[in-house]
């Protein structure tokens, strides 16, 4: 590449990065038609922020062709442009930035606009936080988006949970759940003997066989106690999905409790994660000790009960009451797990001092992804 071409390419990248406010210094002549579409789409989003900082939008279009003026875009048109111009990962990032950082909550008020949004966990978090925005039609669309994201999450997690919790290996049953732990290598060899290749002296395994898992019959109670403070939203989504999956297991009684400074028992809705998420009230203080004290009243068979506290352990109430409640349940031989909150990149975010006190009172404390949590449950209930 010549020095001139390299300089032009560098200038183009800076022009797209800085937006229309760099047009006077860098010019727009080097932008192709496709570049201008990208520039317009980004300007529709970020010019709002620049205007809030006191920079004026040039209503005349600054010499642009009218068809590419961002003022000509509607919200629906803008979303359509994003879908055509960017891959899904970029679309989701821009969409989340528009709602969470730039205050474009009008995206959530119009049912037609909601139809165009890309369903994903980032969007679901925004919808839950702003679920009371909009009319009844918009609310129905919000629930439909929530159900789609929840169903996709359940499809991903359910096989992992079933493998972890469906009982010990049963060598007389076959399974469609493919796991190395269930692999039937003798059966696989027998099944594929007809595919023996004499030249290479190998059996070509066209069909793999796996053992089934025997169902557990002894009843267990699993109490999920979920912190609904604002920082816990991502974890609350997974908790709602996990509760629904566990509710469908034989011989498992699920109790679902959410809390901030008050306690709400959602056990009757545990089978429906969308109803649970639409019931979550984010923000406010946190009284973990009060929630633990309530959950203690739900324990009827301590040795067949698993208590899971999903929280960042940032106690706003009495830490002494919290520790005492955990110690009482642990002494009664309730299986105890403190599940630390994870942020969007999977990093644990929690109060280490409180976590250490709970561990000293008899609670296991860990930061686990949903699949690892299922494995932990399987080990405890084995």
Quick summary of this structure?
With 382 residues, the chain is α/β, with parallel strands linked by helices. The chain is 47% helix and 13% strand. The strands form 3 sheets. It has a 6-stranded mixed beta sheet, with helices on both faces.
Layout of secondary structure:
Elements: H1 3-18, H2 23-26, H3 33-52, H4 75-85, H5 88-100, H6 111-116, H7 121-129, H8 136-165, E1 169-174, H9 185-191, E2 196-197, E3 202-203, E4 211-213, E5 220-227, H10 233-247, E6 252-259, E7 263-265, H11 273-279, H12 288-296, E8 305-311, H13 319-331, E9 335-340, H14 352-360, E10 364-366, H15 370-380
Parallel strand pairs: 5-6, 5-8, 8-9, 9-10
Antiparallel strand pairs: 1-4, 2-3, 6-7
Helix pairs in contact: 3-4, 8-10, 8-11, 8-15, 10-11, 12-13
Please explain how this structure is put together.
With 382 residues, the chain is α/β, with parallel strands linked by helices. Helix content is 47%, strand content 13%. It has three domains: 3-145, no CATH class; 171-213, no CATH class; 220-380, von Willebrand factor, type A domain (Rossmann fold). The protein has helices at 3-18, 23-26, 33-52, 75-85, 88-100, 111-116, 121-129, 136-165, 185-191, 233-247, 273-279, 288-296, 319-331, 352-360, 370-380, and strands at 169-174, 196-197, 202-203, 211-213, 220-227, 252-259, 263-265, 305-311, 335-340, 364-366. The strands form three sheets. A six-stranded mixed β-sheet has the order 7-6-5-8-9-10, with helices on both faces. The chain has a two-stranded antiparallel sheet with strand order 1-4. The protein has a two-stranded antiparallel ribbon with strand order 2-3. It is globular, with a radius of gyration of 27 Å. The termini are far apart. The relative contact order is 0.08.
């Amino acid at each position: 590449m010549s020095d001139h071409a390299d300089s032009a390419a560098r200038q183009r990248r800076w022009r797209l990065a800085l937006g229309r406010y760099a047009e006077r210094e860098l010019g727009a002549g080097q932008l192709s038609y496709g570049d201008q579409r990208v520039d317009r789409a980004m300007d529709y989003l970020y010019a709002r922020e620049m205007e809030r900082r006191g920079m004026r939008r040039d209503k005349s279009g600054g010499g642009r062709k009218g068809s590419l003026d961002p003022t000509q875009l509607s919200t629906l048109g803008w979303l359509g442009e994003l879908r055509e111009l960017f891959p899904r990962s970029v679309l989701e990032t821009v969409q989340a930035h528009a709602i969470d950082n730039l205050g474009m909550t009008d995206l959530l008020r119009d049912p037609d606009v909601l139809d165009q949004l890309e369903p994903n966990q980032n969007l679901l978090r925004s919808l839950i936080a702003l679920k009371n925005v909009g009319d009844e039609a918009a609310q129905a669309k919000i629930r439909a988006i929530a159900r789609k994201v929840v169903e996709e999450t359940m499809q991903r997690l359910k096989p992992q949970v079933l493998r972890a919790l469906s009982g010990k290996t049963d060598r007389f049953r076959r399974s469609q759940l493919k796991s190395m732990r269930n692999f039937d290598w003798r059966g696989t060899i027998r099944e594929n003997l007809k595919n023996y290749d004499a030249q290479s002296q190998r059996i070509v395994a066209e069909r793999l066989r796996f053992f089934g898992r025997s169902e557990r019959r002894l009843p267990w109670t699993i109490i999920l106690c979920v912190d609904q403070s604002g920082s816990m939203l991502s974890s609350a989504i997974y908790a709602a999905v996990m509760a629904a999956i566990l509710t469908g297991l034989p011989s498992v009684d699920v109790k679902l409790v959410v809390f901030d400074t008050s306690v709400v028992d959602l056990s009757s809705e545990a089978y429906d994660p969308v109803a649970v998420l639409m019931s979550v009230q984010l923000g406010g203080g946190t009284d973990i000790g009060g929630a633990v004290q309530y959950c203690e009243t739900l324990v009827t068979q301590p040795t067949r009960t698993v208590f899971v506290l999903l929280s960042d352990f940032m106690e706003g109430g009495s830490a002494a009451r919290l520790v005492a409640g955990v110690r009482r349940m642990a002494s009664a031989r309730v299986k105890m797990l403190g599940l630390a909150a994870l942020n969007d990149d999977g990093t644990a975010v929690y109060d280490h001092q409180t976590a250490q006190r709970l561990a000293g009172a008899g609670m296991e404390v860990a930061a686990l992804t949903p699949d690892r949590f299922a494995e932990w449950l399987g080990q405890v209930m084995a």
